[in-house]
Amino acid sequence: MIKNFFDKAKNSHTWKENLVNLTTQLLNYLIILIIALFIGAVVMFLSGKDPIAAYAALWQGAFGNGYRFADTLDRSVIMILAGIAGSIAFRTNITNLGLEGQLYIGAFAAAWAGFTFTNLPAIVHIPLCMIAGIIGGALWTLPVLYLKMRWKIPELVPTLMLNYIAIRLTDYLIAFPFRDPAAPMAGSPLIAASAKLPKLIKGSTINIGFIIAIVLIFVTYWFLFKTKIGYELRMVGLNQDFAAAAGLPVKRSIFLAMTLSGGVIGLGGALMIQGFFGRFLGGFSSGYGWDGFMIAIIAQNHPFAVFPTALFYGALANGALTMQSVTGVPQAVVAMVKGTLVLFVTVKVFVENIRKGLRKWAM
Within the chain, where are the H helices? Predict the structure, then answer.
């Protein structure tokens, strides 16, 4: 009886602690969001613009009707995959700043598979392009891994520099050997109809890529938190020296995390080509790789937290166009809101005070 009493007390304490932690994070993000929007409003006001009208236009552009909401969900697909890609790397303490370049290579590889193989059924052609995108993104991480494992060169600078190489390389490929002469601007040939993703809603851009992104969130959570390999990746991320002393395969974990990260963002590039553009175009990305970096930070590298963060980023991206066209407020304000969010999430200025207050109240 005494044992049952203490077990119940322990379970009650654990339940309360979990509730406090969850509420702390929610309140922390709410406060940060309010501060970010307030700073944006102040800048708009000082610029002679109406912040209320601007934010109303942003909301209308992102969620004004069913079609706009569907388009926002579609825009969030690449954000989700970019956030997951960043989270996998950061969980293993790898600073993968090369997401943008891996996105470009993956997108071009998917486009190449789409316009090269033209006599395949859709059930084969669609996954073939996705696999090409995954392989392309993963292969672009190999030079960084070689430098890191052969000479212990930190991945920070090589991943960053490979972004520019990837962008310029793909620019060359669509300007010369793979240029479609019928295209109005430099771009690859159109992918075959059999490679395009089926739409989910007629009249909207949303397609089955959104379902793939949602499934990938659950698969990533299962992989990181329910498998032995995922456990090894997380332990290596916490302390490489301790993990090595404990006999964990540190090099294998680093290799796997980096290639998985590149593969996931490469898949994101494939979904953009197959679901929206229909061909590879230079400058098709408006910095989605960098958005993935920030999404992972805000989500604290947790797959489930990536979804609401990516949806918020997708809403900002979709609504910013309407905000600018209706009120004249430049999209740079949205970038400032994003930066403010990352700043306050990183420094964690409110977390401890919120947690202390909630513990006093709940415990």
Answer: 2-46, 51-63, 66-91, 99-116, 122-139, 142-151, 156-175, 209-226, 228-238, 240-245, 250-272, 288-298, 303-327, 332-347, 351-362
